[in-house]
């Protein structure tokens, strides 16, 4: 980790020297000497970082190097902050008149900083000399590992996470649990699954819980993730909501006002005469079974409680009658799992088998460790010498840390093998709450703002960050969560890996996560997050924080106002997303280092007029706020890369001169601005609204200039959307959404060779437009929402060969869908909604051999009766898969109507309501009504 700190500082200093030459005049000599000294030490730090866990002397030396680098960073940032603050405090005229008076103070700052740099330079020199006492030597493998990783990044060949089909060794355990849940015992019984983190307890129980045998056996069900920081009232509220939603019943309106006793009584009343199954996932020793057992009536209906826990004592305290103690995988299953992950062809070469089997043996059958080790070895050269080195380096690690059973050390090996920048990116996830799912693009913006991303010729920082995510995913250190109809992918981290990140982060003073009600924060961490509490944001005057992130925080505005400039003056990231603040303090503009500001989903009504002083700001997100007008100061944010503003917000014309802008969402277009938007030639993502028909030609001309555009959304509320004049569309366009009436489909869409997602909303096309889309070679998601007024759609042979998800919604006259043999050969999910004239399942469904899910909603009564009568029995599997998954949609639609939320707000509310992983994996941006009720007979 010290190596990462040194690399990060050298990268920062190099950038600073290039960009802020005038500010550093007279200091360059000291800075250059510090750079050279740190560069000479860097080559020894990788070996030292590995050795420090077994050598106290090395650990002390590494800690000294890390703290010295932190000091240098603080000194430089503080100096730049003071100079810029002095430079911008006065107005232009006053600064011109009194500039001679400011020179003494500037010389004072420079003299003071020079003294500090001289002192730290001497300290670093002494630390460097101290290295000789430990006889550090450079490992030849280090540079080779780095080259291998960099070559792998550039190759673009990344593997996906292990799929369900590759999970091994759970069939017998699954059958055992299903049997215990569905046996004939009438009394309430508790079934427990116990095992250490990473053994797959939750994965196993999810498969049991979702199985048809279990779902058809019980009248109602609920899945509750408990975790360590559970609250009894929230646990009961979540349980009530899950139970009501499982039967498509409306949740009581006053649930949020109920006290603990009322919540418990509501659960008792609901379960009194029902056969139910309740899953309590991730139970820790902190939960008091006696406090909640009274909520589960023993009604002798054969009800069951199933829990997962890492603690055997917890299962005993629950008086579990049947306990499954998960054991590590057997040799054969462990070997199969390792080969699936470590070799692209899933077969181990004979010359590597001795080393591979030794590695598998040392993983001790732990699935998470095996997957992680397999991902690590996938990046290694397939040579006996390279594999022997890895095998030898594992020997001392696997014998340590008995509490983690060797797994932590295996994960530490994967962490140690990460390139320096990726270590920071990995540890950064320790700031997010447990089971938190963050959008990929937001994570990328955060990493870029923090300075974690290394510049690479020919690539933007965001593109390099996307490669970092791919690499961490390939190493099984991050997980990607795909959502059917969202253009945004989610990123999450396994709980055990998150614990590892938090542990290392605290040890290295990298990050700190606070989730208790404390008034004062005093620590040396560089990155801080606060979660689930009411706090007064304060810190000591020696605060080192570069980031402050809030999650479900109630924060007094006065606290933010008094602390922001005095105690958090060196912040790069300020994330107040969904917090309770109502105004932005003026002192915010003093944060010269600020690169990322997120005020979305707050009640903020205005930005400071002088926001233009944030000259380093890269990302500004004020989406879903009450801001109606952007101040003209936004025009001065020359480094701004990403801008998110609410719909119908007035923006100054000067934002179209921000040449670094890559994201602009959402911006209203008028006759004056439609041409100016073409100046933003670096845009990757654009959402424009209020487009009129007479804007078509000029907007088309502007779009042609955006050669780098990847994501485009164009919205017209009432008038016809005319984009036919686009002659040369952005060649790399990946996602296109057109919302508004079309006389015909723009002819240029068929030329988009890289288009993977297409949404047509309210198009009301009179002709079948599929023929214009058939040739799109990479189209994977197609959504037709009120897009067609005709009666028939035909998917012809040899077309849509890569399409995986098709959604056809609200086409009232559609009475026939034809699917020819050889069409949509990769289709996995098909959704039909509000097509009342469609009387039968699409003709040719038998050709869709890859179909996994068929969802129906608001369809004709004739179609429903045919399904009930069994006429469509051959599609039973697809129907029961998807219809069951969407049983909660009616409740979501009612809540949306009641709370008058847009989808973005509903998504945030849903995450708060559920809180845990099952929320994020099941919620989708659409609603399904109760007109189809298949659960009772399928």
Automatic annotation (TrEMBL):
Domain Disease resistance R13L4/SHOC-2-like LRR: 544-857
Gene3D superfamilies assigned to the protein according to its UniProt record, in alphabetical order: 1.20.5.4130, Helical domain of apoptotic protease-activating factors, P-loop containing nucleotide triphosphate hydrolases, Ribonuclease Inhibitor, Winged helix-like DNA-binding domain superfamily/Winged helix DNA-binding domain
Keyword Nucleotide-binding: yes
Chain ranges of the Disease resistance N-terminal domain: 5-89
Record's keyword terms, sorted: Nucleotide-binding, Plant defense, Repeat
InterPro entries: Apaf_helical, Disease_R_plants, LRR_dom_sf, LRR_R13L4/SHOC2-like, NB-ARC, P-loop_NTPase, RX-like_CC, Rx_N
Xref: Pfam families: LRR_14, NB-ARC, Rx_N, WHD_DRP
One GO term of the biological process aspect: defense response to other organism
Location of the NB-ARC domain: 172-347
GO MF entries: ADP binding
Location of the Disease resistance protein winged helix domain: 431-501
Domain of life, per lineage: Eukaryota
Alphabetized PANTHER family for the sequence: DISEASE RESISTANCE PROTEIN RP, OS09G0270700 PROTEIN
Name this polypeptide is given: Disease resistance protein RPM1-like protein
């Amino acid at each position: 980790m010290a190596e990462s700190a040194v690399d990060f500082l050298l990268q920062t200093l190099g950038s600073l020297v290039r960009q802020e030459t005038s500010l550093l005049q007279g200091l360059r000599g000291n800075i250059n000497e510090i750079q050279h000294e740190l560069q000479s030490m860097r080559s020894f730090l990788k070996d030292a970082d590995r050795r420090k866990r077994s050598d106290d002397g090395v650990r002390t030396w590494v800690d000294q190097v890390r703290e010295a680098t932190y000091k240098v960073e603080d000194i430089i940032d503080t100096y730049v902050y003071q100079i810029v603050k002095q430079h911008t405090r006065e107005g232009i005229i006053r600064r011109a008149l009194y500039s001679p008076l400011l020179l003494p103070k500037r010389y004072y700052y420079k003299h003071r900083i020079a003294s500090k740099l001289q002192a730290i330079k001497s300290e670093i020199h002494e630390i460097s000399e101290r290295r000789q006492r430990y006889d550090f030597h450079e490992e030849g493998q280090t540079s080779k590992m780095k080259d291998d990783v960099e070559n792998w990044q550039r190759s673009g060949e990344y593997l996906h996470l292990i799929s369900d089909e590759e999970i091994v060794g759970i069939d017998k355990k699954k059958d055992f649990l299903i049997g215990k849940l569905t046996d004939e015992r009438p009394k309430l019984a508790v079934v427990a699954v116990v095992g250490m983190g990473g053994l797959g307890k939750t994965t196993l129980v999810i498969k049991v819980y979702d199985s048809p045998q279990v779902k058809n056996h019980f009248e109602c069900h609920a899945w509750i993730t408990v975790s360590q920081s559970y609250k009894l009232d929230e646990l009961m509220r979540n349980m009530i909501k899950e139970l009501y939603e499982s039967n498509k019943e409306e949740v009581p309106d006053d649930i949020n006002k109920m006290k603990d006793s009322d919540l418990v009584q509501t659960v008792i009343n609901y379960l009194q005469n029902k056969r139910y199954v309740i899953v309590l996932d991730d139970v820790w020793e902190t939960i008091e079974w006696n406090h909640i057992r009274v909520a589960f009536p023993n009604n002798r209906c054969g009800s069951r409680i199933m829990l997962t826990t890492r603690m055997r004592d917890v299962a005993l305290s629950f008086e579990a009658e049947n306990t499954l103690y998960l054991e590590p995988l057997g040799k054969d299953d462990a070997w199969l799992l390792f080969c699936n992950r470590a070799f692209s062809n899933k077969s181990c070469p004979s010359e590597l088998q001795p080393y591979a089997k030794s590695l598998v043996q040392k993983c001790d059958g732990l699935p998470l460790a095996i997957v992680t080790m397999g991902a690590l070895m996938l990046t290694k050269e397939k040579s006996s010498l390279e594999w022997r080195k890895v095998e030898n380096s594992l020997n001392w690690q696997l014998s340590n840390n008995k509490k983690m059973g060797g797994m932590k050390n295996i994960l530490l090996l994967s962490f140690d093998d990460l390139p320096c920048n990726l270590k920071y990116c990995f540890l950064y996830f320790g700031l997010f709450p447990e089971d938190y799912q963050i959008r990929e693009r937001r994570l990328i913006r955060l990493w870029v703002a923090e300075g974690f991303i290394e510049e690479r010729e020919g690539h933007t920082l965001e593109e390099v960050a996307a490669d970092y995510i791919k690499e961490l995913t390939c190493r099984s250190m991050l997980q990607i969560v795909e959502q059917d109809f969202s253009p945004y992918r989610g990123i999450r981290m396994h709980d055990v890996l998150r614990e590892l990140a938090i542990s290392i982060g605290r040890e290295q003073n990298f990050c700190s996560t606070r989730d208790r009600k404390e008034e004062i924060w005093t620590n040396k961490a560089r990155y801080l997050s606060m979660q689930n509490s009411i706090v007064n944001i304060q810190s000591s005057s020696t605060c080192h924080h570069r980031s402050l992130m809030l999650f479900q925080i109630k924060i007094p505005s006065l606290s933010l106002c008094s602390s922001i400039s005095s105690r958090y003056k060196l912040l790069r990231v300020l994330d107040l997303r969904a917090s309770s603040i109502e105004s932005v303090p003026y002192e915010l503009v003093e944060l010269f280092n600020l690169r990322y500001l997120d005020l979305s989903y707050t009640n903020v009504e205005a930005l400071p007029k002088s926001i233009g002083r944030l000259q380093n700001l890269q990302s500004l997100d004020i989406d879903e706020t009450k801001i109606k007008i952007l101040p003209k100061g936004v025009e001065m944010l020359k480094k701004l890369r990403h801008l998110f503003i609410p719909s119908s917000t007035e923006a100054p014309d000067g934002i179209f001169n921000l040449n670094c802008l890559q994201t602009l969402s959402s911006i209203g277009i008028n006759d004056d601005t439609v041409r100016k938007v073409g100046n933003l030639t670096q845009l990757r993502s654009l959402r424009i609204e209020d487009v009129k028909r007479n804007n078509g030609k000029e907007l088309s001309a502007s779009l042609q200039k955006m050669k780098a555009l990847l994501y485009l959304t164009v919205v017209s509320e009432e008038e016809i959307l005319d984009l036919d004049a686009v002659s040369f569309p952005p060649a790399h366009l990946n996602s296109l959404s057109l919302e508004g009436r079309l006389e015909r489909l723009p002819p240029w869409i068929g030329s988009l060779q890289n288009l993977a997602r297409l949404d047509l909303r309210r198009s009301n096309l009179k002709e079948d437009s599929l023929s214009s889309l058939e040739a799109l070679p990479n189209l994977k998601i197609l959504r037709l929402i009120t897009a067609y007024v005709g009666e028939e759609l035909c998917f012809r042979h040899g077309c849509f060969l890569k399409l995986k998800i098709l959604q056809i919604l609200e086409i009232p006259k559609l009475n026939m869908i034809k699917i020819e043999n050889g069409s949509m050969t990769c289709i996995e999910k098909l959704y039909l909604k509000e097509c009342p004239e469609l009387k039968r399942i699409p003709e040719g469904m038998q050709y869709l051999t890859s179909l996994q899910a068929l969802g129906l909603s608001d369809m004709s009564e004739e179609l429903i009766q045919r399904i009930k009568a069994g006429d469509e029995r051959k599609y039973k599997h697809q129907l029961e898969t998807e219809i069951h998954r969407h049983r909660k949609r009616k409740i979501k639609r009612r809540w949306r109507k009641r709370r008058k939320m847009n989808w973005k707000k509903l998504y945030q509310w849903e995450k708060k309501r559920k809180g845990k992983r099952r929320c994020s994996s099941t919620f989708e941006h659409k609603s399904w009504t109760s007109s189809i009720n298949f659960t009772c007979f399928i």
